[in-house]
Amino acid sequence: MFATTPLRIVAVSAGLSQPSSTRLLADRLAAAARERLAAEQHRDVEIQVVELRDLAVDIANHLVSGFPSAKLREAIDAVTEADGLIAVTPVFTASYSGLFKSFFDLIDHTALTGKPVVIAATGGTARHSLVLEHALRPLFAYLRAVTVPTSVYAASEDWGSSGDEYTEGLPSRIRRAGGELASAVLGRTVSGASRTPGLDDGEDAVVPFEQQLADLRLD
């Protein structure tokens, strides 16, 4: 029996083509998170995908005029009100796409505070995989979101990788990232332990430097 209030996962896809590997990656991450949430929480999970290619003109007009269209306002509200967020961009010039950045430029820098986020990207070669760490993770750190530890990069050759759970292929990384997002949405640590208010928010969790020095002297 599912609870009455569904959990909401929103995936933002900045893919430009149709069909798009970026959209495909967003869908698979959302499915992995929904599967884990439904299994652990026995609640309905709503998935919404925001296709930025359909909002490109609205985003440009908002940047110039300062006023969002109704369709763009609906997309922004969906992102800011989601229980969990999946953000996927194609790689252009060794970074996220301009459309992806322009959309998140329109979101208030405090609106995603504490929101669990999976970051992911697609590209033609594995050489661009570090875009997740040098571009996307700092972006969402600025927006005060909580990015899960596993980020997912899918190069062209990754789509043919094995789904063997003992490998580090794309299917394995998708399942792991989806599971981490589910744990974060449920207020748990990635390991599955319950979060402790205060300690998990950084309060009293850091050992003072003086105490660290004292411990070293005792050793």
From TrEMBL:
<dbReference type="InterPro" id="IPR023932">
    <property type="entry name" value="CE1759_FMN_reduct"/>
</dbReference>
<dbReference type="InterPro" id="IPR051814">
    <property type="entry name" value="NAD(P)H-dep_FMN_reductase"/>
</dbReference>
<keyword id="KW-0288">FMN</keyword>
<dbReference type="Pfam" id="PF03358">
    <property type="entry name" value="FMN_red"/>
</dbReference>
<dbReference type="InterPro" id="IPR029039">
    <property type="entry name" value="Flavoprotein-like_sf"/>
</dbReference>
<keyword id="KW-0560">Oxidoreductase</keyword>
<protein>
    <submittedName>
        <fullName>FMN reductase</fullName>
    </submittedName>
</protein>
<dbReference type="InterPro" id="IPR005025">
    <property type="entry name" value="FMN_Rdtase-like_dom"/>
</dbReference>
<feature type="domain" description="NADPH-dependent FMN reductase-like">
    <location>
        <begin position="8"/>
        <end position="159"/>
    </location>
</feature>
<keyword id="KW-0285">Flavoprotein</keyword>
